[in-house]
Amino acid sequence: QQPMRAKHCQTCKRCVRRFDHHCPWIENCVGERNHRWFFAYLLVQLLVLLWALHIALSGISPGATWELWLRANGFLLGALTMVGVFSWVTLLLLGCHLYLVSINCTTWEFMSRHRISYLKNCEDEENPFDRGVFCNLWDFFCICRTVMWEQVYKKNTSNPV
């Protein structure tokens, strides 16, 4: 029986607990055991890109005319543009993952909630796994354990009547 919040990845041909997404950049699924490392990977990528932006900006030299300035700095402007776009995309990815972690939701659950059996009947803003921002962040970054999501789900959806 497939555990709750798990999904079978068609690309990797395996079942992944707390499946978030299959990442083509790392050629692997992001799930319960490596989501924290994926977040660290994004953070390191952003820091390296910002460092590259700093280095490229420090290399720009003045020129007497626009034409001379463009000739002297053309390559750096291209590199700055490319690194700037990559930095922006990485920052957006990092921000999205931080938001999803703070509400204890995965990318797969966020994008496909209308198809997932345990989320179909929930309201649009309702998440049965959300324990509050602080607890969600604490559990993600500080607690290293496998969670029985079925118990969390039953506890959060119990009928008080």
From TrEMBL:
Membrane topology: Multi-pass membrane protein
Domain Palmitoyltransferase DHHC: 2-112
Subcellular location: Endomembrane system
Residues passing through the membrane, by range: 38-57, 77-101
Record keywords, A-Z: Acyltransferase, Lipoprotein, Membrane, Palmitate, Transferase, Transmembrane, Transmembrane helix
UniProt note: domains: The DHHC domain is required for palmitoyltransferase activity.
Family: Belongs to the DHHC palmitoyltransferase family.
UniProt-recorded name of the protein: Palmitoyltransferase
Species whose genome carries this gene: Goodea atripinnis
Record gene name: ZDHHC12B_1
